[in-house]
Automatic annotation (TrEMBL):
Protein name: Putative signal transducing protein
Residues annotated as transmembrane: none
SUPFAM superfamilies per UniProt: GlnB-like (SSF54913)
Organism: Yoonia rosea
InterPro entries listed in its UniProt record: DUF2007, N-reg_PII-like_a/b
All residue ranges annotated as the DUF2007 domain in the record: 1-65
Amino acid sequence: MKELLRTNDPTVIAFATALLDSEGIDWFTFDVNMSVLEGSIGIMPRRLMVLDRDLFMAEAVMRDGEIDLGRD
């Protein structure tokens, strides 16, 4: 799996996963349960992962949805 997106904002993750679902791209979120360690204050970013073969298409979907991937 490859990292597509890393963010502390749960609304960005929700929007990104909705966009990926609409294109039939499988995804998985890492670090969701880190809130146990951080005390639910949201300092640990969540990572949105996609399969290696889907990365190019997923990045295009994020660009079309105007989601900043933080890479230049």
